[in-house]
């Protein structure tokens, strides 16, 4: 049986389930760019309708962190942008449109139109890049024969597109987006569905993610191990209280084949 080794401890498992954003791909590089385009477009459209632009900044609205020059440099791992679904984010944005003077119906339509614009811009730029060490670790996993899956708050079609852009889609035999389940994170539904497709018990898998919602999902499903990845963000460790172990990079993980 493959064994995942972390900080000297050995964990026999049959599969690893990865969150996508902030775990496989650089969160800010993709979603920081996307969210800024979405908010700018929405604000511009309010002004075109002779309404006041958004009066709330993205730090408060989405849970992003900005440098003094305005560049996004971090994110709240337990905030809406990190943990919410696209529908959650559009609801937050629709509420801002309603507060600005649109009807709820108008606000929902505008939010969706601006989402499509941001999606198109992302598609044109393909602004995705893997986290450091991701591809070497995935190759380790492939060589060990361990099963891999993705469980993401993103919609499945978009998730598959991102994995393809990153060139890592072939590593995963299962990809579960939030649109495939009744309840998203932190509920166990995505892990349970992924394990069903892998023909494994939830107790046989490790889960790797960058938010405490991922960790709570793992715990509620009865996963063997919940691994939080904090990266170089020192606040990330404190944002992952339900993790069994927190790592800063994939270099801290190794897969071994247990000979016994």
Give the averaged pLDDT, no decimals. 91
Describe the sheet with the most strands.
6 strands, parallel
Q: Based on the coordinates given, report the CATH architecture of the largest domain.
A: 3-Layer(aba) Sandwich
Please state the CA-atom Rg, rounded to the nearest Å: 19 Å
CATH superfamily of the largest domain: HAD superfamily/HAD-like
Give descriptors for this structure.
about 260 residues; alpha/beta; Rossmann fold; six-stranded parallel sheet; elongated; HAD_sf
Structural notes for this entry:
The chain is α/β, with parallel strands linked by helices and 260 residues long. It has two domains: 2-26 and 129-257, HAD superfamily/HAD-like (Rossmann fold), CATH 3.40.50; 28-125, no CATH class. The protein has helices spanning 27-48, 58-62, 80-83, 86-100, 104-125, 134-144, 156-166, 189-198, 212-221, 235-238; strands spanning 2-6, 9-12, 15-18, 64-66, 72-75, 147-152, 174-177, 205-209, 225-229, 245-247, 253-257. It has a six-stranded parallel β-sheet with strand order 7-6-3-8-9-10, sandwiched between helices. A three-stranded antiparallel β-sheet has the order 2-1-11. The protein has a two-stranded antiparallel sheet with strand order 4-5. The chain is elongated, with a radius of gyration of 19 Å.
Summarize the structure.
This protein is α/β, with parallel strands linked by helices.
Any chance you could write out the topology, listing elements then pairs?
Elements: E1 2-6, E2 9-12, E3 15-18, H1 27-48, H2 58-62, E4 64-66, E5 72-75, H3 80-83, H4 86-100, H5 104-125, H6 134-144, E6 147-152, H7 156-166, E7 174-177, H8 189-198, E8 205-209, H9 212-221, E9 225-229, H10 235-238, E10 245-247, E11 253-257
Parallel strand pairs: 3-6, 3-8, 6-7, 8-9, 9-10
Antiparallel strand pairs: 1-2, 1-11, 4-5
Helix pairs in contact: 1-5, 4-5
């Amino acid at each position: 049986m493959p064994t995942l080794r972390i900080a000297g401890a050995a964990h026999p498992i049959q599969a690893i389930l990865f969150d996508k954003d902030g775990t496989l791909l650089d969160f800010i590089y993709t979603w920081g760019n996307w969210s800024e385009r979405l908010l700018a477009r929405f604000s511009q459209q309010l002004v075109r309708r002779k309404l006041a632009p958004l009066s709330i900044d993205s730090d408060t609205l989405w849970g992003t962190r900005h440098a003094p020059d305005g560049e996004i440099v971090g994110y709240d791992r337990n905030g809406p942008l990190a943990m919410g679904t696209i529908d959650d984010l559009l609801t937050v944005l629709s509420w801002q449109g309603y507060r600005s003077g649109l009807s709820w119906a108008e606000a929902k339509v505008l939010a969706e139109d601006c989402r499509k614009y941001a999606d198109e811009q992302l598609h044109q730029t393909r602004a995705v890049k893997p986290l450091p060490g991701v591809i070497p670790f995935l190759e380790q996993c492939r060589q060990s024969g361990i099963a891999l899956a993705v469980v993401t708050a993103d919609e499945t079609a978009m998730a598959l597109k991102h994995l393809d852009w990153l060139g890592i889609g072939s590593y995963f035999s299962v990809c579960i987006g939030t649109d495939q389940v009744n309840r998203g994170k932190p509920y166990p539904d995505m892990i349970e569905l992924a394990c069903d497709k892998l023909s494994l018990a939830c107790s046989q898998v490790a889960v790797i993610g960058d938010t405490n919602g991922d960790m709570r999902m793992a715990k509620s499903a009865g996963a063997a191990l919940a691994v939080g990845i904090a990266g170089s963000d020192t606040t990330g460790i404190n944002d992952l209280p339900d993790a069994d172990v927190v790592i800063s990079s994939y270099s801290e993980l190794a897969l071994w084949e247990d000979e016994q």
